[in-house]
Amino acid sequence: MKMRFFQLMIAFAFILSLLTGFSQELRADSHQKVYVIPLEETVEKGLAQYIKRTISEANAQEVDHIILEINTLGGAVDGAMEIADTLRSSEIPITAYINRRAISAGAYIALNADKIYMAPGSQMGSAAIITGDGNAADDKAQSLWLSELKEAAERNGRDPKYALAMADKEVDIPEYGAGKGDLLTLESKSALEVGYSEGTAKDRQDLLNQLNLSNAEIIKAKESFAEKVARFITHPVVVPILLSIGSLGLVVELYSPGFGLAGFAGLTSLFLFFYGHLVAGLAGMESVILFLLGIIFLIAELFVPGAILGVLGIGSIIASLYIASGNVVNMTISLGIALAVSITASILLVKVFGKRMNLFKKLILRDSTNTESGYVSNKSRTDLLGLEGVAMTTLRPSGTAVIAEERIDVVTEGSYIAKGQRVKVVKVEGARIVVRELN
Question: Is the pTM of this model over 0.85?
Answer without folding.
Answer: no
